[in-house]
Structures are given as C-alpha cells and as structure tokens.
C-alpha cells in the first residue's frame, strides 16, 4: 500500500507478485528452517515500517515547524499535512504487534503475505497485503473444494517481532512435492488458548463463512445468525473495521455505532477494534444510549417486559400531558381595576387546547401563553365589553407576573423528571388506565422509585425526549468564512479534496452511517425505537440467535425491528460452526435446550477436550462451601478465566468466594456474549424460571473448556 493504508492498495496488490520477498520453498525444510524464512520476511516488513514511521514523524514535525503560514489556505494545508502524518503514525503503532500473520502460496508459485496493514517496499511494490483488501480474501475463503488457486495457506504467530510458530493447510495435494507443510492447524491452536477476560481479534483465523459476512456491502441490512460460539460478535466487530477501510470518508465522518447488551459486555469487546487499528467507532451499551445516564441495573423480568413493550407508548404520551406536580392551580390577574381568575378546571381546559395544537410540551411554550390569554379574555370580555383584544394581549402578555406564572405552569420538562412522575403509583395509574393492571402499575412504579435508572428505563427516557420535544440545533460547516471583515467562499480544495467534517457523537447523535446491533434477539420494542433514531439513514448489521432470547414476546420485537430498520437490500448470513465450546460442553447444553426451546439452531462444535460436564445438587446450606471448592478446582485446572453465573438474588451471598482476579461473578443476563475457560453455573433451574430457558441456554454455553453445574435442592 501507500504510506497510509487504503482500498487503492488492495486493488493494486492483486496485480503484484510478492514472490521476490521470500526464497524458493524446499519440501525438505524443517519447522525451524521455515520459521527462519518467515522471520527474515517479518524482519524486512518491520524494517520498512520503521522507515515509514520515521518519515511520518519527520513530516509531522516539519508541519509543526511551519509557523510562517499566515494565509488561511496555507494554514489549512499545514494542518491537513500534520493530521495525515499523525494518523499514519497512529496506524503503524496500533498494528505493530502481530503485524504479519498469514501467507498464501498459489498454484503458479506466487507468494502473498497477509497482515494487519498494507505495506510497500522502497520501489513501491506490495510487500504486505492488508487483511481487509480483496487480495486477502482467499486467505479466509479458500477451501479444499474451492481452492481459489491457493496451494498452501500458512498462519504465522508472532510475539513482538519474533515468529514463534507457523501452521499450514495444504489445499492442493499435488503441491506437496514442492511445499513443506508444518503444524497442526492454526484455528484449533487459537481455540485452545486461555481466555484473558478480553475478546481478541481473529484476523489470523477468520473462517470462510465468517469472512463472507464481514465483507458484505455496507448499504441495506446485513443479518448474521448462528448458535452459541459461532463468532457472531467478533465477526460484527471485524465488519466495522472492514467498512471503515472500504469507505473511510463515509464511515469515519458520519460514524459507526456498535450497540451491545451490557456494560460488562462492552468492556469485554472494547479492545477488539483498537487492536485492528480503528478507534473511531462509537461503542455503547443499551444502558448508555441516553446522555448522562449509565444504567447497569436489571429490572425483574416481569417489570422489564412491561417497560420494554409497546404498551408504554400510549402511557408515556398521557404522562407528558399531565400537569407538572409543582404547577400552580390558579391564575389571578388585575386588568383595568377588575380581578380575573382562572381556576384549576379553566387551566386544565387551557392545557388540553395547547396539546391539540402542539403535542410536544417543550416546543409549546408560546402556544401555552396564547391559550392562557384566550382563557382570560373569555373572562374579561363579558365584564369589559369595550376592551380591545390586541391591547389586552399586549398589556397582560408582557406583565412580569403573567410571564412568571407561565414559567411555573408550563416549565421546560426533563425526561428524567417526567419519568420520575411515574414513580407515583396514582399518576402512573392515571396514565396507564385501560393499558395496565393494578399489580403491574404498582411494580413499575416501585421500580421507578429506585435511586438509579434500570437498563429498560433508558429507552423510556429516550422516548420521552422525543415526546417532550427536542429543539434542534443548526449543524454543518459554514462554507463562507471571514477574516478581518473579508468573506471568502469555499475553495476548490475545500469542495473537492476536503473530507467531510466529523460530527460530535454523543449518546443522542442520530446520523450514523452504520449501526451494528449485537444480541439483537434480546432487544425490546422500545429499545428498537431508540436505535431507529440513531440510524435513520444508516446501513445495519444485526447479530443474534432467537434461541438465546430473553424477550418474552418475540413477534412483538420482530415487528419493532422491521419498523426500525429501513427497508432496502437484505443480506443474510448463517454461521454453522461453534468455535467456543468443546464438543462435550455443547452437547450437554444442546440436550438440555432441545426439549425446552423451539426451532433451536445447533451449530457443530469443532473440537473435543475429553473433559465431561460435571453436575451436582446440594442443599442451600452447602452451596457456599461447594462453590468455593469448585472455584478452587477450576483455577487449578485452567490457565485463564473462571466465570460464576448465578441468579441475581444470590450474588450478595456468593460474592464471599470470589476473591481471585481470574474469577468473575455475573448474572445470567450479563453473561451474554462473554466466555470463560471454566464456568460454574449456579441454580440453573432458578435462572430458567426467572428469565426463560433461552437465558439458561446462554449460561450453559459460555465455557471454552470446563463446565460445572451446581443445583440447589
């Protein structure tokens, strides 16, 4: 590629033979000799990257020293020069670890190395092909059935700049006479490595069906389905990196939004995109999509089912029309010596007339003032028949006491304040009449009286933000600029070469170019409405598995999704291989789930460990010592992480045995999308009863090596 990565390098790489970079293969070579060959190539790439980085640092420093630029056009060019150099340095630094990870040997003896970046040599010939480039696609898609002219595929595993291990797949058996074949398979080795509590990128081990989903067009909607462990989440994240590479101007300027189910999940995936050199995508959990709120609390399933349902729409519409609790109930005005009064009934009628003309209260202040003046005029006219309407309106409407009353009677409302009104069961019952039973009203009101917001509350806050009315701020670049009183229209440089300005993207930003939704099967209709506002003109990537759903009314959610996602081209991909669970773990989970879940998607587990699932039933008094022993045993058995997944009402009790950094205690809903080397599932029947069998199925499929189930009798 050029000094800075880009799609153009991918196109050119297809026409460049990189066989000059490596010696001819010798089938008699030992693994050590092959590692030495790859090490020599890796050294050459890193040496070239060092040169490119030094050049970029020089360009940046030269730009900083260019202080003499006083003409605005020259200042702009200097700033662009510095920005591009700094961006080049950041790209090279972020991809330094494991820069070269793949090699393709073709039937015609061409050789192509694949890496995290595209790199060209001193003569501008391709040295390394970016993994997102079309030229790299055969590395992921070639199979023994469809070889795409690939004779051998090699995965190179490095630590720092040192090649530690290589692993080959021979796709053309006739090439065995000229190509050495080393190793036992990179994918299986990667799957067996310990988990660290953070999701890793998979650029070296992407499989063909995953690669097809990653490279789907960005326009329209891409639906990625598959059972547990099929890599849906990591595919979606690599898709974000691929889209940014393919059309950086569009996706970096307007933004890519990645939405996950919980803050725990977002922390888990948080390093994947930066490890791929992409820092610009916005990552939000469903509890963070309202500015100033970071909700982590889970409601009881029955309450969450009410808050997330479309039944809340008419309730919220009624709620915003209620009189604020602190609003005055009477208006007295002296006009031409007489006292005129509007009582509570008059004010209620005036409020109703306002909403007939403008249903959004925060945009109806002027209309509210007009309604009060009209209501007062109807009192004034019979008493003072000679009064003039225009003069009356100017006099009364400009008085300080009238404007003060208006501010208190019709204040600007905050969504959090209005949702708080519903914590009063009487107010909520009034708004919910004909929609909710009394028991549901009491449960929802009790939840809204909590000190913090729950995750389902965030969608309600966002709905209220729209119902109350948002005063839009003008946005966009002013193409007529002024210096010292002289206006200058945009230049040709601005019009033809300047990339679009990146807008500030807080939780309310609504102009994303692409929205990626993970664990989509769990989204409530209200959450789909919230997301639809962020992606009004976006492409969508929707990832999920219906069998793992925690939402009790899937048809309602599916209808909401269809309304949220713009109609257009639909690309569907189904992932069929379970790379997370061992065969022993997944077969146990599948046998548990099959009689309890309809239309369950059961992928094929690709590896075995020989370690069976353990199951034990204890009484409540013996739970703590049993769990303590299970945790200690798991820590001894695995090098990586241990997850304890238990019902929420047991967390306070079980926290006493979680005192190792490698052990995490989470609830069943937070476990979605996560994985551990060993998992201890506590009281699975209680999880299934409270959250449904789909969530219990999730709990059983989080382990990569060992699973123990502890039931409470």
From TrEMBL:
InterPro entries: DNA_helicase_UvrD/REP, P-loop_NTPase, UvrD-like_ATP-bd. ATP binds at residues 226-233. It comes from the Bacteria. Residues 1-30 are annotated as: Disordered. Residues 205-582 form the UvrD-like helicase ATP-binding domain. SUPFAM superfamilies: P-loop containing nucleoside triphosphate hydrolases (SSF52540). Keywords: ATP-binding, Helicase, Hydrolase, Nucleotide-binding. Pfam families: AAA_19. This is AAA family ATPase. It comes from Glycomyces endophyticus. The lineage of its organism: Bacteria, Bacillati, Actinomycetota, Actinomycetes, Glycomycetales.
């Amino acid at each position: 590629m050029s000094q800075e990565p880009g799609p153009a390098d991918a196109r050119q790489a297809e026409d460049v033979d990189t066989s000059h970079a490596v010696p001819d293969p010798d089938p008699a070579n030992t693994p050590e000799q092959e590692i030495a060959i790859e090490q020599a190539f890796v050294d050459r790439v890193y040496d070239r990257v060092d040169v490119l980085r030094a050049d970029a640092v020089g360009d940046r420093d030269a730009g900083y020293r260019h202080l003499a630029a006083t003409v605005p056009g020259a200042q702009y060019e200097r700033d662009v020069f510095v920005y591009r150099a700094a961006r080049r340095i950041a790209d090279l630094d972020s991809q330094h670890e494991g820069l070269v990870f793949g090699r393709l040997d073709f039937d015609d003896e061409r050789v192509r190395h694949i890496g995290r970046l595209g790199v060209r040599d001193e003569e501008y010939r391709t040295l390394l092909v970016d993994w997102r480039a079309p030229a790299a696609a055969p590395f992921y898609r070639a199979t023994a059935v469809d070889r795409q002219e690939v004779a051998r595929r090699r995965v190179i595993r490095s630590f720092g700049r040192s090649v530690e291990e290589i692993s080959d797949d021979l796709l053309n058996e006739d090439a065995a006479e000229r190509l050495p074949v080393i190793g036992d398979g990179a994918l299986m080795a990667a799957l067996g490595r310990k988990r660290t509590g953070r999701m890793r990128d998979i650029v070296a081990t992407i499989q063909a069906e995953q690669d097809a989903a990653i490279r789907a067009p960005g326009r329209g909607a891409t639906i990625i389905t598959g059972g547990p462990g099929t890599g849906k989440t990591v595919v979606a994240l690599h898709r974000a990196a691929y889209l940014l590479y393919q059309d950086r101007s569009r996706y970096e300027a307007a933004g890519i939004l990645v939405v996950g189910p919980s803050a725990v999940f977002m922390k888990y995936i948080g390093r994947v995109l930066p490890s791929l050199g992409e820092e610009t995508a916005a990552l939000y959990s469903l509890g963070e999509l309202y500015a100033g709120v970071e909700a982590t609390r889970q409601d009881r399933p029955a309450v969450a089912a009410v808050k997330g349902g479309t039944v809340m729409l008419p309730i919220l519409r009624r709620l915003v029309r209620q009189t604020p609790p602190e609003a005055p109930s009477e208006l007295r005005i002296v006009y031409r010596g007489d006292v005129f009064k509007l009582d509570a009934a008059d004010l209620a009628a005036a409020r109703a007339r306002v909403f007939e003309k403008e249903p959004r209260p925060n945009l109806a202040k002027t209309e509210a003032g007009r309604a009060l003046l009209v209501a007062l005029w109807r009192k004034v006219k019979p008493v003072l028949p000679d009064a003039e309407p225009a003069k009356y309106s100017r006099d009364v409407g400009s008085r300080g006491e009238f404007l003060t009353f208006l501010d208190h009677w019709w204040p600007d409302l905050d969504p959090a304040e209005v949702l708080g009104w519903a914590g009063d069961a009487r107010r909520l019952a009034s708004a919910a009449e004909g929609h909710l039973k009394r028991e549901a009203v009491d449960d929802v009101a009790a939840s809204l009286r909590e000190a913090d917001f729950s995750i389902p509350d965030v969608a309600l806050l966002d709905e209220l933000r729209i119902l109350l009315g948002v005063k839009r701020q003008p946005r966009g670049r002013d193409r007529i600029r002024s210096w010292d009183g002289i206006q200058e229209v945009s230049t040709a440089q601005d019009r033809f070469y300047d990339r679009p300005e990146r807008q500030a993207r807080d939780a309310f930003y609504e102009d994303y170019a692409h929205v990626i939704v993970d664990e989509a099967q769990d989204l409530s209709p209200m959450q789909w409405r919230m997301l639809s506002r962020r992606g009004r003109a976006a492409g969508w990537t929707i990832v999920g598995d219906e069998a793992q759903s925690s939402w009790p009314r899937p048809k309602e959610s599916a209808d909401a999704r269809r309304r949220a996602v713009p109609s257009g081209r639909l690309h569907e991909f189904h992932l069929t291989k379970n790379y997370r669970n061992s065969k022993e773990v997944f077969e146990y989970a599948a046998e548990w789930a099959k009689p309890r879940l309809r239309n369950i998607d059961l992928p094929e587990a690709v590896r075995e460990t020989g370690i069976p699932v353990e199951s034990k039933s204890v009484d409540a008094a013996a739970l703590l010592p049993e769990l303590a022993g299970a945790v200690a045993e798991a820590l001894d058995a695995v090098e990586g992480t241990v997850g304890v997944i238990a019902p929420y009402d047991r967390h306070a009790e079980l926290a006493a045995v979680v005192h190792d950094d490698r052990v995490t205690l989470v609830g069943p809903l937070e476990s979605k999308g996560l994985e551990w080397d060993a998992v201890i599932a506590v009281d699975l029947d209680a999880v299934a009863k409270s959250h449904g069998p789909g969530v219990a199925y999730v709990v059983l499929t989080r382990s990569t090596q060992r699973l123990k189930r502890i039931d409470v009798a």
